[in-house]
Amino acid sequence: MKRFLILALLLLIVTAPSEAQNELARPVTNILSLRIGQGKMRDSYLAPLLYTGANFSIEGQRWRMHRDLNWVNWQQADIMFSSGEDHGNNSGAWTGRLRYRYGILWRWSDSLDPTTLEVRTESSPWSFYLGPYAGIDLGFDYNLKMASSNNPATARVVGNLGAVGAVRYKFQNPSVRGMRVMFQAYAPLIGAGFRPEYGASYYETFYLSTSGNYAHFTSLHNQQDLDVQLTLDFPLAIIPGLRSFDSVLRLGGSYHIETMDINNITSRYSSVEFVIGWVYQYLPFGRRKVNLLKRSPYEAY
Please, which pLDDT band fits residue 133 given cuts at 50, 70 and 90? Predict the structure, then answer.
């Protein structure tokens, strides 16, 4: 028994450095963004009117590479709220969304040698990402004018499988080292969602337990959803007077449009937003985090 414990301890000591080295090959990028702009919404279950108003959302993304640097674990979550009025300012509506997506992306970039993990002196400034994702979309639409009626709101519950892609360009000029432009887009392809029948109340659906066609298969024929972003990431250290800062600022714009047409109920939502965010890149090493801007040439995404 003692010999077994000694051998296990020696094996742990011998393999610990190699595990740490493998962990260093998995850089992480965390992105927290605030998106503010204009949103448009319409849900024919409540009223066939178009509402326009302010749109506000908070988004978080996490990119983490696999050890071979060819694949990336991608996670995205956001919470959105929009408040609008119709063209005659006679009524108003609220819309809220809570979304989460998880994907595995194939990464093409020759900036790092996957064998030696060294930065190549001559490499392309472009990186490409493409892969599938699974996500869930929860939300609601609320009509203020119908607050006293039986159906003032409608719920949204949708699960999707989709595709996500991104293109990144890294500036090579030493004076703007670390600046990156990134275009990102994702869209669901197939899934399933909840939708009440036209004219049926939620009281009848849930409390009276009336039968109906509430669960539906979704695809491009009855659901279209596209979210695109174009952003610029730049380290604050490249700005004169901010050399001591190691944070990365994100600025850009986003466009989101979604439609759903099920059970003779049509819903539309779109938004155009300005994006401002904070990007933090690091290498997890045990319980410590090594900031990529100061101590490593690795790229987190």
Answer: very high
Please report the pLDDT score of residue 247 as a whole number.
Answer: 75
**Percent above pLDDT 90 for the chain:** 42
Rounded distance between C-alpha atoms, residue 131 and residue 72, angstroms: 9
Q: What is the C-alpha separation between 98 and 177, in angstroms, rounded?
A: 36
CA–CA distance, 40 with 49 (Å, rounded to integer): 10
Catalogue all structural domains in the chain, each as residue range(s) with its CATH number: 26-295 (2.40.128.100)
Residues 6+ apart with CB under 8 A from 155: 139, 140, 194, 202
pLDDT digits (tens, 9 = 90+) for 256-295: 999 999 888 889 999 999 999 999 887 775 545 555 544 4
* Distance from C-alpha of 258 to C-alpha of 272, rounded to nearest angstrom: 12
Distances (CA, A) of 170 to 46, 233, 265: 47, 10, 45
Question: Residue 126: which pLDDT band, with cuts at 50, 70 and 90?
Answer: confident
CA 72, CA 82: separation in Å to the nearest integer?
Answer: 32
Give the mean model confidence (pLDDT) for residues 181-208.
82
What distance in Å separates the CA atoms of residue 264 and residue 197, rounded to the nearest whole number?
A: 8
Burial 146-172 (b: 16+ CB within 10 A, else e): eeeeebebbebebbbebebbbebebbe
β-strand partners of 191? 160, 218
